[in-house]
Every structure is written in structure tokens, then in C-alpha cells.
């Protein structure tokens, strides 16, 4: 039995509220159970120097956790004077995941920055950030298209992420914190909406896993991706 009482293949409740900030070109609040992430997308008519003049667009991301997003207060990274290694790793993951679903030629020479701020954490913050980040990106691109600034849609597919793992010897979908902290195997699966894989992060944490178990986790992840893609498209319809 999972601590939440969910079935092994059952997602947490998911909601995506759009238009939650006044100024950002695209924004949403994604809630996956008790993990809540504010995602905003900002359009800028510039690109990083390494692609300037190429005609290609760029999508990048930043990620952060509020001091009381967890059970005890964490110090702001700005106060520490630098980002932690976990933060840097996650925001790079978000950026490269979102770029996998973008036609950068169609986007044109502009940059969209997706900011993901964790308001409340209960496991799966990077997956929620990617899934919600795509919604914010979609809304921002919609504005570009409505204004006629891009001719063809640069978003080729939704980008979705979900966690799976082996908890108490059983493969489970969408781990919350009690499961994540005790899981023998933990994995994050990032895919396009058609379930083409972008990135898989799997690690044994106190237990090894077999090829068959990995296949079971991929099957669970595909189920989660299907459900989350439906929620993304409903939110941006």
C-alpha cells in the first residue's frame, strides 16, 4: 500500500491554472498533489552570443525553491551568493527538455526564458516544472503567433515529465516525497507527447533494478505522460 493510498499506476491529482501573473507572456500554476510550481515564460528579442546571427531561437530555464517550500526553511541561494549544484542541474534539465520540443528555426532569433519557482514541494518538482514550463511556453508562443511575429508554430510537441520508482518492492507512478525518500529506485522520465524519449534519469538508491523492472517503469511513465499531456492541452486550448 502506498502512503497516499493510491494505486500503483495512479497519478496524484493534477491541476494547471493559466494566466496567473499579470506581466509574463505565458504563466501557469501547476499542482501535482502537494507539489506546486509557478511557471512563467518571458519573450526577449535577443539570443545568447553563441547563436547570434544564426537565425535560430533559444529556450532556456531557471529554477528555484522558495525558503518555506519544504518542511523547514532553506536559505535563499541569493543570500548564499551562488546557486547550488542541484539547482543548476535541474534548470539545465528543464531548458534542454523544453528545447527538444521546439523548432528553433520557426521560433526565429529570439529567446524565451521559462522560470520555474517551487512554491511547495512534495516530490517531483523537476517533473512538475517541465510539464508546467511547457504550458507557459505554449501560451507565450501563442502570443507570438497571434501577433504575426512567427509564421509557423515552433512548438512541435508537448514536453512532459513524470517520476516513477520502485517503492517497497513495487513499481509506482508519480512519487510523492514519502515514497521518493524511501524508494529503492528513483527515475525521472521526460518525453514528447508522442512518448518519444528526451531524457531518462534512473538511479538505484539502496537497491539495484533489472531490465524487466526498468521496462515496467517506462510503461508506467508512458501512462503518466498520456495523462499529463491531456492536462497540458486542456489548459492551453
Automatic annotation (TrEMBL):
Q: Which GO terms describe its molecular function?
A: 3'-5'-RNA exonuclease activity; tRNA binding; tRNA nucleotidyltransferase activity
How does the record describe its quaternary structure?
Homohexameric ring arranged as a trimer of dimers.
Naturally occurring in which organism (per UniProt)? Shimia gijangensis
Q: Which domain of life is it from?
A: Bacteria
Q: Where does phosphate bind?
A: 86, 124-126
Q: Does the keyword RNA-binding apply?
A: yes
Write down the PROSITE patterns for this protein, in alphabetical order: RIBONUCLEASE_PH (PS01277)
Tell me one Pfam family matched here.
Answer: RNase_PH_C
Ranges for domain Exoribonuclease phosphorolytic:
10-140, 158-224
CDD domains from the xrefs?
A: RNase_PH_bact (cd11362)
Family affiliation: Belongs to the RNase PH family.
Q: Which SUPFAM superfamilies match?
A: Ribonuclease PH domain 2-like (SSF55666), Ribosomal protein S5 domain 2-like (SSF54211)
UniProt keywords (A-Z) are:
Nucleotidyltransferase, RNA-binding, rRNA processing, Transferase, tRNA processing, tRNA-binding
Name of the molecule in the record: Ribonuclease PH
Report any one BP term from Gene Ontology.
tRNA processing
Q: Reaction(s) catalyzed by this protein?
A: tRNA(n+1) + phosphate = tRNA(n) + a ribonucleoside 5'-diphosphate
Amino acid at each position: 500500500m502506498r502512503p497516499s493510498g493510491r494505486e500503483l499506476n495512479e497519478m496524484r491529482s493534477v491541476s494547471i491554472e493559466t494566466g496567473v501573473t499579470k506581466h509574463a507572456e505565458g504563466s501557469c500554476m501547476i499542482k501535482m498533489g502537494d507539489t506546486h510550481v509557478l511557471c512563467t515564460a518571458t519573450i526577449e528579442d535577443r539570443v545568447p552570443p553563441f547563436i547570434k546571427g544564426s537565425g535560430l531561437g533559444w529556450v532556456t530555464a531557471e529554477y528555484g525553491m522558495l525558503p518555506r517550500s519544504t518542511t523547514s526553511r532553506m536559505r535563499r541561494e541569493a543570500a548564499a551568493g551562488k546557486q547550488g549544484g542541484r539547482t543548476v542541474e535541474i534548470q539545465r534539465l528543464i531548458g534542454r527538455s523544453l528545447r527538444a520540443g521546439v523548432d528553433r528555426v520557426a521560433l526565429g532569433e529570439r529567446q524565451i526564458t521559462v522560470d520555474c519557482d517551487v512554491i511547495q514541494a512534495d516530490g517531483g518538482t523537476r517533473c512538475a516544472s517541465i510539464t508546467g514550463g511547457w504550458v507557459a511556453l505554449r501560451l507565450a508562443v501563442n502570443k507570438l503567433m497571434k501577433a504575426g511575429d512567427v509564421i509557423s508554430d515552433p512548438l512541435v510537441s508537448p514536453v512532459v515529465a513524470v517520476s516513477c520508482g520502485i517503492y517497497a518492492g513495487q513499481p509506482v507512478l508519480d512519487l510523492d516525497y514519502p515514497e521518493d525518500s524511501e524508494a529503492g529506485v528513483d527515475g525521472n522520465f521526460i518525453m514528447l507527447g508522442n512518448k518519444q524519449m528526451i531524457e531518462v534519469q534512473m538511479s538505484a538508491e539502496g537497491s539495484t533494478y533489472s531490465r524487466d523492472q526498468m521496462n515496467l517503469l517506462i510503461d508506467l511513465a508512458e501512462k503518466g505522460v498520456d495523462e499529463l499531456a491531456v492536462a497540458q492541452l486542456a489548459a492551453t486550448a
